[in-house]
Amino acid sequence: MRFFLLFCITAFIYSCKGPTNSNKNETTTTVESETQIDSGAVKDFREFKVLDSKYIDVDMLWAPFNKDLETFSESQYNNLKPLILEQDIPALQSHIRDGKLSYETLVKFYLYRIRAFDRENPLSLNSVISLNPNIITEAKQKDIEFRNKKMKHPIFGMPILLKDNINTSGMPTTAGAVALQNNNAKDAFIVKQLKDKGALILGKANLSEWAYFFCGDCPSGYSAIGGQTLNPYGRRIMDTGGSSSGSGVAVAANFCVAAVGSETSGSILSPSSQNSIVGLKPTIGLLSRSGIVPISSTLDTPGPMTKNVTDNAILLDAMFGEDISDPKSIFALWEAGFYLEGLKQSSLKGKRFGAIKRLMEDSLYVNAVNVLKSQGAEIVEIEGESIELKDFRRLLNLDMKKDLPTYLSSAVDTSVAVTSVQDVILFNEKDSVNMMPYGQRLFHGIVADNASDTEFESIKAALKTAGRSFFDVPMKAHQLDGILSINNYHAGFAAVAEYPALTVPMGYDQEGKPKGLTFIAKPLQEKFLLQWAYNFEQASKLRRLPKDYE
User: Fold this and answer.
1) Pairing of strands 128-131, 3-5
2) Contact status, residue 508 vs residue 515, Cβ threshold 8 Å
3) Which of 95, 349, 468, 527 has its CA 20 to 30 Å from the CA of residue 283?
4) H/E element holding 123?
């Protein structure tokens, strides 16, 4: 059903049981350990079965750009760094208005940087799967349109990477899987939205294969097509988070202005916090899911992943809009610019947040709480509700068993031969060493799971009630505007409640691992989340560029 929204924004939300120790992102459920969807507590893979992609021909990847990049020198690249690295979208657009930059130069800068750092070298991150072969031509056209005053939106001319489960014309959409290697599909709804506002689609980002609901025993950031994504803050040491791993890494390393990820439960929040960037998991239905390889039509959503909160608001604004082909799509009455408007004038004064007592053992979290207090926020220490998310994995199994065949029958290239989860399993068994080196345990679990329609609806209803109770009880008791978490510690509860969550860098632990302060709010309070995060970000300024990628 469609939700008709009036601008009525109030605030409440959540309480949670945090981790039992500072090294594991546990919730009160076994969701993460069963599914790896919430991937903050993933295994620590120091040795990988596969590192580099066996399916990407690097020479072919760069063939469309070699001639254009011949005249883009290292000195030019170095001279552009102060204008581009870590700059937000308004600053980049200002440089373009002042004639210091062009959209063509901006694209060439990112291409140069990706070629220098992303594959087959001692600093490679394996975060990009494919590049738009026409990106330089498209950038030149944006320069012409800009001179003719045809700029429509702040996202105009900005090079954006898309997670490679989002259909995009001109590049395959693989979900990291060999079975979809030649899936040349039409643009997803959110891609049309971006293009309509003038965004440049730079390429596709690597991901945990099938959005991390495939192998069950593999490191986050691995896909057969893309190889092993690596964290720029600790290459081959620190986990990337998943499943939007490539999106998080590419943004952190300044390979693009911003990226789009997708989340079922933790798949934006985890890689964003693990890579010291800002990630927003919106209310389900605020952004269209049409044309995105699914796990769960109940819980899936795309979302913006950016270096700062301002860019997050701009990218969210560029994508939202009602999609009549998505049954959960929301018709919002607010107009373009809604999420960015008033951001700099917002304040934390008088806002009430729940700080989870068990998380107060984390010094970075305590520091973040103190920053919020210094800006006028009121902090209430709360216990977490003891609630279990029973049958969470079954919800994902049953949804994907139905939703993936629907995608494969309606939104893929006609050359794609697989039509079901079982077909993918059989396809991979033809070359298990290359296509499924870590196995495909979760796919087998999907095939084995069955439920009547009545039972499935009961599972979904019970989970949604449990998730909302987890948040609503403490919020009502303490009159809270929002809840403060860490990374994706409570992503499972936000997922089934269908509540939005936003993570923003809150510093680095003693080992240099990034962590994020995560705000969780009630549905359609993204504007509030962005305001809270913006004020925290401006007061703390804790994000820093990975030192090997400066």
Assistant:
1) unpaired
2) yes
3) 349
4) none
Q: How many CB atoms lie within 10 A of CB 509?
A: 13
What the block records as the tokens of 486 is 């860490």
Q: What is the mean pLDDT of the chain?
A: 92
Cα–Cα dist 176/424, whole Å: 13
Question: What's residue 27's pLDDT?
Answer: 34
Give the pairing type, strands 514-520 and 501-508.
Answer: antiparallel
- For domain 3-549, give the CATH number: 3.90.1300.10
Stronger pLDDT, 336 or 38, i.e. the higher one? 336
Question: So where are the chain's domains?
Answer: 3-549
Q: What is the pTM of this model?
A: 0.93
- 220 catalytic, yes or no? no
Q: Flag whether pLDDT at 169 surpasses 80.
A: yes
Omega before 102 cis (within 30°)? no
The candidate with the shortest Cα–Cα distance to 348, out of 212, 535, 196, is 535
The residue among 191, 196, 199, 343 whose CA lies nearest residue 258 is: 199
CA atoms of 246 and 535, how far apart (whole Å): 27
List 39, 208, 223, 243, catalytic entry = 243
Beta bridge partners of 341: none
Determine if residue 221 is left, alpha or beta; phi over 0 gives left, psi from -120 to 50 gives alpha, anything else beta: left
Query: What string of H, E and C letters represents the secondary structure of 435-465?
Result: HCCCCCHHHHHHHHCCCCHHHHHHHHHHHHH
CA–CA gap between residue 222 and residue 266 (Å, rounded): 16
Q: Are 485 and 369 in contact (CB under 8 A)?
A: no
338: which residues sit within 8 A by CB, 6+ positions away?
Answer: 317, 332, 527
Q: What percent of the chain has pLDDT over 90?
A: 89
The Cα–Cα gap between 267 and 260 comes to: 11
Q: Please check the confidence at residue 277 and state whether its pLDDT lies above 90.
A: yes
pLDDT of residue 336: 85
> How far apart (Å, rounded) are the C-alpha atoms in residues 348 and 375?
6
Give me the DSSP letters along 473-502.
Answer: HHHHHHT-SEEEEETTTTHHHHHHHT--EE
Q: Tokens 């040349």 identify what position?
A: 184
For the segment 472-483, the average pLDDT, to the nearest whole number, is 97
**End-to-end CA gap in the chain:** 47
Q: State the Cα–Cα distance between residues 223 and 486, nearest whole angstrom.
A: 26
Catalytic residue among 53, 267, 272, 290: 267
pLDDT of residue 31 exceeding 90, the answer is: no
Annotated catalytic residue within 17, 108, 163, 281:
163
pLDDT for position 333: 81
Question: Does the annotation count 469 as an active-site position?
Answer: no
Containing 27, the helix (H) or strand (E) segment is none
Task: Specify the amino acid at residue 90.
Answer: P
Could you read off the pLDDT of 301-316 as tens digits, one per residue?
999 999 999 999 999 9
Q: Give the span between the Cα atoms of 160 and 139, in whole angstroms.
A: 12
